[in-house]
Amino acid sequence: MARETTQLAVLGAGPGGYAAAFYAADLGMQVALIDEEKNPGGVCLYRGCIPSKALLHVAKVVDEARHAAAWGVTFGDPAIDVGRLRAYKQGVVDKLTGGVGQVARLRKVKYLQGRATLTGPRSMVVAGSGGDTEVQFEHCVLATGSHPTRVPSLALASPRMLDSTTALELPDVPGRLLVVGGGYIGLELGTVYATLGSRVSVVEMTGGLLPGADRDLVQVLQKRLEQLFAAIMLNTKVVGVSEEANGIRVTLEGDVTSKEQVFDRVLVAVGRRPNSKIPGLDSTRVKVDARGFIETDGQRRTAEPTLFAIGDVAGEPMLAHKASHEARVAIDAIAGHRAVFEPLAIPAVVFTDPEIAWCGLTEMQAMEQGTSIDVAKFPWGALSRAITVDRPEGLTKLVFDPKDGRVLGVGIAGSGAGELIAEGVLAVEMGATAEDVKLTIHPHPTLSESLMESAEVFFGQSTHVYKPKRK
Ligand code: NAD
């Protein structure tokens, strides 16, 4: 068996793992990065964020081209070549994963392709195509990610059943698509398929789409989705699926009149589960909680002092940017620097059209916790840039501490909300007040002005909205 000795091993090369490996290399550590794929990238680059965003970009172009008729410009109906679309998406994935692989080589990170089994707190065996390699390390970062949740009532072995991975392969554009789960994945991929021509129905078990987001933000998106989708069935569950000659027969339970419906394909997107069943993990003292997350402290150290865990396997929210931030904390801790994971704001973005983005304290959380807040909202109907691009449906809101006007949270629904939220994250992290945001000159005419004007609303002095402050 081949042998490698390294200071740091990183197991899993997604945005958590490769960020950890690269930062450690930058600090001068000797690093091995282990993953089953040919290049680093993880679910995000290969089967998640990146391919879905490539497809959502195409969906947006198709949608805008259709919408252009209202501005006096008419294009023909789009002719969709699924093969070329698939190739475009694959090209994006190859470019990024290949690029990250190149950056790993430049940093002299040893990339080992294969499946790892821990053999103790300081060693693992990586089974690769060329045989096994034993890797001995001083520390290891576990960054093994997550996988789609499987639900017994939806377990049916059929190519007509899709999860986020197979849906992104874009096998075809089905006539009738049922999306089970009105969360991030369901709504993003539902948007892609509906824009490409599928009749998309969504089933959501709770009383609203995107259960974690504030309702006023979701409302902006829902209005649009009610036009785009054939049906949105809330408070509804799928209790059974069976295959028949012309599709999947689905049995529904809840607020829905038609309890039996047939679809060409069914996409199940009901959450993700941590990949904590790492072979050999039981040869260490690492603890896994009841939900399957590896338990860590504020530095992302597990109960086994040589092992750290970051990203989806180490807890919610399961977002790439949370993983890469934790990566830096863990590596700093290993390097003996002062570091702790305690962000005030982790942005969440749903890349539908309009997008929904939020960070810090939401109104819903404030209500649940009994925290008193002030909220200032700026409707995009009064935002010049939104009107120039014919997207006046958006909304920007700031959540303030009523004592000192500190920005505690930001929520945005509208075209490009995912880009705009970064300013909100900075405001929350820097402890900015309503006055700071109000006095910061924002470029005109841009959608970013909505943040400044929301702060002006807080003082009852927004230039474009007449809303005097309550006495
Ligand atoms: P999710 O948690 O966002 O949504 C799942 C939805 O399914 C929820 O609304 C839930 O109430 C519903 N649900 C659960 N069981 C159901 C059932 N049996 N029938 C009907 N509805 C049911 O999960 P997801 O969309 O699968 O995404 C998984 C995770 O991946 C997300 O939580 C997120 O962390 C990550 N993700 C992020 C992005 C992004 O940042 N834009 C995009 C995709 C995925």
Could you explain the architecture of this structure?
The protein has 471 residues and is of the alpha/beta class. Helix content is 31%, strand content 26%. Strand 21 (395-400) and strand 22 form a beta hairpin. The mean pLDDT is 97. Nicotinamide-adenine-dinucleotide binds at residues 151, 180-186, 188, 203-206, 211, 237-238, 269-272, 317-319, 349-351.
Total number of strands: 22
The total domain count is 3
- The CATH architecture of the largest domain would be 3-Layer(bba) Sandwich
The shape, in one word, is globular
CATH class identity of the largest domain: Alpha Beta
**What are the bound molecules?**
nicotinamide-adenine-dinucleotide
- Tally of individual helices: 13
And the CATH topology of the largest domain?
A: FAD/NAD(P)-binding domain
Query: What's the CATH H-level superfamily name of the largest domain?
Result: FAD/NAD(P)-binding domain
Class inferred from helices and paired strands: alpha/beta
The stretches of 5 or more residues where confidence is low (pLDDT under 50) are none
**Spatial separation of the terminal alpha carbons:** 77 Å
